[in-house]
Amino acid sequence: MSTPQPPGRLIMTTTFTVEGYRIREYLGIVRGVIVRAPTIAQGFKGGLRMIVGGQISEFTQMCEQTRQQATASLAQHAREMGADAVVGIAYDASEIGQSATEVMCYGTAVLLEREGATAAGV
Fold first, then answer.
1. CA separation for the pair 87, 16 (Å, rounded)
2. In this model, does residue 41 exceed pLDDT 70?
3. Ramachandran region of residue 37, left (φ > 0), alpha (ψ -120 to 50) or beta?
4. What is the mean pLDDT of residues 8-35?
5. Distance (Å, rounded) from C-alpha 73 to C-alpha 50?
6. How confident is the model at residue 38 (pLDDT cuts 50, 70, 90)?
């Protein structure tokens, strides 16, 4: 029996288990892919900071936004599959050309069941 979840709630974890639940069914791999390039302003300011050194906050902000977008895309994909949770979430990034980066968030969509639940749901 699937774990009742509030509408829109999706458990997402980097672990391969969810405490208090067992995986009832594996639905498959889900992913969110975003390709981003810095804006002209981010590229210019980031380039100047590269010359003087230190943290490049413009690029940090862009990377964080891209990871958030990839995670949201993964969550949407999992919801479309009817998942209760996504386990084993990880990120990967690769360069595309000289100025664009692909960020991928991926994991396994699953249906959960409370540990100790019976077929009658008790």
1. 5
2. no
3. beta
4. 93
5. 31
6. low
The answer to whether 29 and 108 have CB atoms below 8 angstroms apart is yes
- Residue 112: HSE in the Cβ half-sphere, 13 Å Cα cutoff: 23
What is the crossing angle of helices 57-80 and 40-52, to 10°? 130
Give 80-84 contacts, CB < 8 A, sequence gap 24+: 81/27, 81/28, 81/30, 81/109, 82/27, 82/111, 83/10, 83/27, 83/30, 83/109, 83/110, 83/111, 84/2, 84/3, 84/5, 84/10, 84/11, 84/110, 84/111, 84/112
Given its phi and psi angles, is residue 97 left (phi above 0), alpha (psi -120 to 50 degrees) or beta? left
pTM to 2 decimals? 0.74
Confidence tier at 40 by pLDDT (50, 70, 90): low
